[in-house]
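Hi Y.,

Following your request, here is the sequence exactly as I used it, all 530 residues.
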Amino acid sequence: MLAVNKKALAILLVVLPLLFIFIHHWGSGSVTSIDIQGKDSLKELLEKRTQQAKYVNDNIPYSIKDSISKTLAINGCVCESNKPPINLPFAQLLFPQVSATQLHTMLQESDLPRAKQYRDKEYQSFRKRTYTAADSLILAEANSPLQYPTQGVEVRPTRTILIPGLSLKEISREGPYVVDLIATMGTFDTSALVNGVQISGEGELHITFVSESLALLNRQLQFVTYTNTLFHPNTADVVQFETPGFKATFTIRIRHPPMPRFFIPGPKKDYTVSNLVTIATKTFLRYDKLQDLIDSIRQFYPTITIVIADDTKDPKPVKGPYIEHYLMPFGKGWFAGRNLAVSQVTTKYVLWVDDDFIFTSNTKLEKMVDILETTTLDLVGGAVREVTGYTTTYRHIVTTDPGDKEGDCLHMRNGFHHVIEGFPNCVVADAVINFFMARTEKIRQVGFDPRLARVGHLAFYIDGLGSLHVGSCDDVIVSHASKIKAMLPWGQSDTDKAYAAFRYPSSGEQNVNEYDLYYLKNHFKCVTSD
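Below is the corresponding structure, written out as tokens. Let me know if you'd prefer a different format.
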């Protein structure tokens, strides 16, 4: 009887934590399915206008809503680690631990002042290049008699447009109706004249309209034009619209429109996977594994093009139909190889694979093409199955919080945002596994930082945050070649030993890593991850 009780107790100790985990994830994992078909003077002007806004109801008391206030921190950039509240064998499973790294601590203390100076200079230059008035908050005061467009007015550089929506509502006044328009990067004029309206400042930065008749004035305002005179390929002008006692501000965006780049397979080619997709990979020493990858691809896609970037010191020829083998200087690295391989792709999509992957009947590239063709995704990852049978998708949610002069906060968590409607096995995330298909032009826009020679998978998605729309499908699966033999000292070949020595260097070697770039390039001060 005592033995039976011990056995039951052991079963409970195993089952109860697992049951708790199941209930926790079931309750918190309500999955939704969603359809996914600078100029300093301008900035100062807008900030001044915002600060001058009058809030007449400041004396009305209020109460804080706790459920919302928890998500709104005065200083939103805080990186803190946590530890399981109890010290039990299953604590890490029940309460996943979040680590936090203060990135400046990764640098040598003697290097930190110079690194900060360099980073601050680069960040200010970046802000100057990327800030436009269209990024600023503009408030349209509710009681203003001025009617004007708050967003959506756009002109191509050095061209002319009619400004839509300008009007003045009836107000009490003494004397005639008067309105002024003032710009900084262009001039005003009129495409037609209305009798009974006096105009001064035509062809200048400041134009004035005066009339005794509100109807005539508003009719004239329908013909006001704006001409951009200060060239910039992508910026915005701040326009001040005034009448005595009232002021308003709106922006006119100045830019060349995004240039479409279409893929046309050619008059004799169909929209097949082989015509739409190029497979790209990077190899170093492991020609046996590379050949296994090629053989597995040819079993399912005999005519698809394979682009190989190779930085082996003494490269071997890789030949065959539909194979392009590009040699690089020795040891240039993983991301440099990615850039080279992707630069040679001429198809609409590129599939990235590691050189030790193996295609199987579950590696259905048609599914990836289908989701890229029918959704707004730029990149869709698959799943990798290890020799043990374990399959992973490596999905991450990446967020940032605004910080201070020391930098912002970067947060990375396992998980995804939502399921994609019509594709029940596919979700939207911010970072996915190292097996993905992407729009070739989009992936080139983000690029791969060649300073990351051996590690840095997530760095690509950090650079693409806000630009790449990323998804993941767990039913498109590639196999991973077994590493067990290569990990055993007696099972390693000379190639395995040489590869391991280069791929996993000693801790004493100085290498650029992701944390260095997060701090020096991306202006983060800390990072948290689970």
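The domain at 135-255 is CATH 2.60.40 (Immunoglobulin-like).

Thanks again,
Q.
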